[in-house]
Amino acid sequence: MKFRRQKSTSLRRSQPIDWHKVLLAQIHLAGLPEPKTEYRFHAHRQWRFDFCWKPQLVACEIEGGIWMQTETGRSKGHAHPERFESDCEKYNEAALYGWLLIRVTPKMVRDGRALDWLERALLTD
After folding, report:
1. CA atoms of 40 and 112, how far apart (whole Å)
2. H-only helix segments in the chain
3. Nearest-CA neighbor of 123 among 19, 32, 21?
4. CB under 8 Å, gap of 24 or more: what pairs does 43-50 form?
5. Helix (H, G, I), strand (E, B), or coil: what is residue 36?
6. pTM of this prediction?
7. For position 90, what pLDDT does the model report?
8. Where are the chain's structural domains?
9. Residue numbers in the chain where pLDDT is lower than 50
10. What are the φ and ψ backbone dihedral angles of 42, each rounded to 5 degrees?
11. What is the chain's mean pLDDT, rounded?
């Protein structure tokens, strides 16, 4: 008789962290104004900001997937050359529209730098 080995629940991989939710919680706890999420800022393109404060023209993008690679070692996600170039186009257009864009990584959300930059951008007189 063969016995089947049961998978240990402690060895299961945890769910990925939603860094958008983490940053939004930090924003709320810090008492910053409520951001618009997935705000379409461009008149002719479908580009959206992860977070924005329209009255102040401040926006924030969380750059996920910057370390992602294919099995062959090529970049993918935001690090892929085509995606990187597309992001440059989006960010340059945002600048021409007058937006101050704060770009952050999940590590910057985790260690508090993202929130610090947003506080400074939003609370500057």
Report:
1. 26
2. 19-29, 81-96, 106-111, 113-123
3. 32
4. 45/90, 45/93, 47/90, 47/93, 47/94, 49/94, 49/99, 49/101, 50/20
5. strand
6. 0.75
7. 96
8. 31-58+68-100
9. 8, 67-69, 75-76
10. -100, 140
11. 84
